[in-house]
């Protein structure tokens, strides 16, 4: 593979371990499709998820090398973490993608290393991980081309919906836990940036995580751009001490509180604010320290906020509104000491998750109703509680 400073690209065919697989090759007497099906079955995906993954990978195989000239801009999807995300059309195939553009003032050798490190994304194929088409460097920017999720990210949905129902959050959390477990178990990757804007949904009811930290150089190069991300970081990470996947658990718990109450929960909302959100007849337990001003939590400067995360009690879900199981799940995520925080396996077996997985939540219908989309599959009309 040759790398050039003007337009450095890579886009490999679907692979099995380290061996390339294409439509015309076989591996140990098996066709590429048979090998692919076996790999997907090993990941515990259901028939619908496997079929969707096979379809995505077959589409990806046809695309070939990605270049800037082949991508037609259709609009902006969002911005953050030092980059902007665009909706684009791949002209040769007509496929709609999401393209993240990251401008970095670093040496060419560093940009090449980032491209090489992003290469592992080709191997991250799972039902709850956003699909990756390829990455390239052009005109001073790194482009990361991903699967387009038409429902958008949960931070955008939160702005439209106000807050997200507990039943929906249960299904979302189950998917996120499975995605995080896949990254850890299959690729020894921790996410490092779990937050609502990095959880995507679509009109087919799929839930996928994106923007996980596969490139150490990219993380280091963008360190000064992560102001918004720091507000979701665990106390141990903010203190600069050793951190692990337990740090992702904290970020998930904080995100859940935010999506459940409809506002970032640090500092905690007072009783008046909770009454405005949930109604005056609930038994709210707002933060007494915030009740004196009567105007809700005051805004904090970023350093004051980070100091609060490290030194003050963690946020909680208010009483009298959510189930005891949900409150317990969040409390287990938001332990200040990472050694006391629940791990992925424990959370995946938590009563709240087991209950959520037994429910038939219409995620596709909820996404379509909230975002004004046309369902890709038949959906129910009853809204979630």
From TrEMBL:
Belongs to the protein kinase superfamily. STE Ser/Thr protein kinase family. MAP kinase kinase subfamily. It comes from Graphocephala atropunctata. Keywords: ATP-binding, Kinase, Nucleotide-binding, Phosphoprotein, Serine/threonine-protein kinase, Transferase, Tyrosine-protein kinase. The keyword Metal-binding does not apply. GO terms for cellular component: cytosol. It comes from the Eukaryota. Its EC number is 2.7.12.2. It catalyses: L-threonyl-[protein] + ATP = O-phospho-L-threonyl-[protein] + ADP + H(+); L-tyrosyl-[protein] + ATP = O-phospho-L-tyrosyl-[protein] + ADP + H(+); L-seryl-[protein] + ATP = O-phospho-L-seryl-[protein] + ADP + H(+). ATP binds at residue 100. The keyword Coiled coil does not apply. One of its GO terms (molecular function) is protein serine/threonine kinase activity. It is an enzyme of class 2 (transferase). Residues 71-353 form the Protein kinase domain. SUPFAM superfamilies: Protein kinase-like (PK-like). This is mitogen-activated protein kinase kinase. Transmembrane segments: none annotated. It holds the Pfam family Pkinase. InterPro entries: Kinase-like_dom_sf, MAP_kinase_kinase, Prot_kinase_dom, Protein_kinase_ATP_BS, Ser/Thr_kinase_AS.
């Amino acid at each position: 593979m040759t790398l050039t400073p003007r337009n450095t690209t890579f886009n490999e065919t679907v692979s099995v371990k380290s061996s390339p697989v294409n439509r015309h090759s076989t591996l140990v007497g098996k066709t590429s499709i048979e090998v692919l099906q076996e790999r997907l079955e090993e990941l515990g995906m259901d028939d619908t998820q496997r079929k969707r993954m096979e379809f995505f990978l077959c589409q990806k195989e046809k695309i070939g090398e990605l270049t800037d000239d082949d991508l037609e801009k259709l609009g902006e999807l969002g911005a953050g973490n030092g980059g902007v995300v665009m909706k684009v059309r791949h002209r040769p195939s007509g496929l709609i993608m999401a393209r993240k553009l990251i401008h970095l003032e670093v040496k060419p050798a560093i940009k090449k290393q980032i491209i090489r490190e992003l290469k592992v994304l080709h191997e991250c194929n799972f039902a709850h991980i956003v699909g990756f088409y390829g990455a390239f460097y052009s005109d001073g920017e790194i482009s990361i081309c991903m699967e387009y999720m038409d429902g958008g990210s949960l931070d955008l949905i939160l702005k439209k919906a106000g807050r997200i129902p507990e039943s929906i959050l249960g299904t979302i959390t189950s998917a996120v836990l499975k995605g995080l477990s896949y990254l850890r178990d299959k690729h020894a990757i921790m996410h490092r940036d779990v937050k609502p804007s990095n959880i995507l949904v679509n009109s087919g009811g799929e839930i996928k995580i994106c923007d996980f930290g596969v490139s150490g150089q990219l993380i280091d190069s963008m360190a000064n751009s992560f102001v918004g991300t720091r507000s979701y970081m665990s106390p141990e990470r903010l203190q600069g001490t050793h951190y692990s996947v337990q740090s992702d658990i904290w970020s998930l718990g904080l995100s859940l509180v935010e999506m459940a109450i409809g506002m970032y929960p640090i500092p905690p909302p007072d009783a008046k604010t909770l009454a405005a959100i949930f109604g005056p007849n609930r038994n709210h337990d707002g933060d007494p320290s915030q009740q004196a001003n009567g105007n809700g939590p005051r805004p904090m400067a970023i350093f004051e906020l980070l100091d609060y995360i490290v030194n003050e009690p963690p946020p909680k879900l208010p009483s009298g509104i959510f189930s005891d199981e949900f409150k317990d799940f969040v409390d287990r995520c938001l332990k200040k000491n990472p050694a006391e925080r629940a791990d992925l396996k424990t959370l995946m077996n938590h009563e709240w998750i087991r209950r959520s997985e037994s429910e038939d939540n219409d995620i596709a219908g909820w996404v379509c109703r909230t975002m004004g989309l046309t369902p890709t599959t038949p959906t129910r009309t009853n809204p979630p509680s």
